[in-house]
Amino acid sequence: MTQNSHYDVIVVGLGALGAATLYQLSQRGARVLGIDQFAPPHDQGSSHGDSRITRLAIGEGDEYVPFVQRSHAIWRELEARTGTPLMSTTGGLVLAPRDRVAEHHGKADFVRRTIASAERFGIAHEVLDAAGIRARFPQFHLQGDEIGYHERDAGFVRPEAAIGAQLAVARASGAQTRTGERVQSVEPVGNGDTVRVRTETASFTADRVVIAAGAWLPEFLGRQARTDWQANFSVHRQVMHWFDTGSAAADFSPGRFPIFIWMFGDGQEDYMYGFPSSDPTQPALKVATEQYVSATTPDTIDRSVSPEETAAMYRDRVAGRFPQIGGRALKARACMYTVTPDRRFVIDALDGLPHVLIASACSGHGFKHSAGLGEAIADQVLGRAMSHGLDLRPFARQRLLKEKETA
Ligand SMILES: Cc1cc2nc3c(=O)[nH]c(=O)nc-3n(C[C@H](O)[C@H](O)[C@H](O)COP(=O)(O)OP(=O)(O)OC[C@H]3O[C@@H](n4cnc5c(N)ncnc54)[C@H](O)[C@@H]3O)c2cc1C
Predict the structure, then answer these.
(1) Is the CB of 337 under 6 A from ligand 1?
(2) Across residues 158-179, what is the average pLDDT?
(3) Which tens digit of pLDDT belongs to each residue from 370-397?
(4) Which of 95, 156, 200, 203 has fewest C-beta within 10 Å?
(5) Among 161, 91, 153, which residue's Cα sits nearest to residue 123?
């Protein structure tokens, strides 16, 4: 076993959140080590598939807005620093049937909450009726009763490139990384002011440890005998599909087509979201939906996608809504959501191990906030004040315990 080395901070997991945290720590002069079981960016976790929606008005809650605002600024800084394109501002459309929105009905209520968020934070937007949506985006085949929120500065971020850029700059700034190495345990040393991190082959100590293990978090918590924490998370397989835009490629290019979130029924899964083409060499409409019915684990998930799944996606969701798109799939990928009961993040110290911070930007909406979260986490573990209105307190785990008590 490798001899022990000591760090200010060890970051376990170098995906969206871990790479952002490592990058921010490296910019603050901390002696830092990042460890990942794979070699990020990779396609085994939650941060692959070419694109992630980003939008500034956050219907999920006001507490998220400073994080996405900060993420956009950080990605633009990183683009300038590395010369790598990370984010495309395409505009974004969130739409649902008007009566469902008016009645605060189910998932459609997200449109109302997004408009309210934009108004509170002064985010540039327009509210469009079906005629207004059609006039601007004839690609959508509407029923005629829709209401749409359009945000000028929404778009998509490239997850693999964003992770890669943050890791590259972190390494160039002195951060050490170990990849292909799985962390087995974290444990206090002595009176608990130091934490030991063990992998299969090495052991290190640090003043602080950040666990950003994504979908592997439940299993990690189980190994740490934290079954109470483990019970707060479940992992769900999601699938992304890329349909050939054929002769309509120009209509689905980033200048002409927005990212979109479209609620069309009452159920949690009566919806889809999508993207303009992100790769001009393979023009495609990328679409996905969400499912929370069956749970999985990173070890047992089926990462292949069957032709039947893609055919069902086309038949049930795409065909009637985008008449220009045929059913030819260019690719499909499976990915994992790590989900909490209230669909919000958990960023909190482990009780009894106050120097170990669990960081889960989970529940399917974390990427857009990840760069800002990395900044806040770096400041928190270094004992510095947070800036830019960032505040991690809303993500304390305590709320889940309260909900359990009152359930
Ligand atoms: C299909 C899909 C679509 C999504 N769409 C959006 C979207 O449009 N907009 C948005 O904002 N968000 C979206 N999300 C959510 C977002 O992508 C995730 O919230 C985010 O990527 C999670 O990042 P993470 O760092 O927690 O996990 P990951 O990026 O998966 O990183 C976890 C890392 O930890 C490592 N690891 C785990 N255990 C260990 C261990 N014991 N030792 C060493 N390394 C370990 C893993 O190898 C991995 O690299 C989507 C997610 C999916 C799956």
Answers:
(1) yes
(2) 98
(3) 999 999 999 999 999 999 999 999 999 9
(4) 200
(5) 153
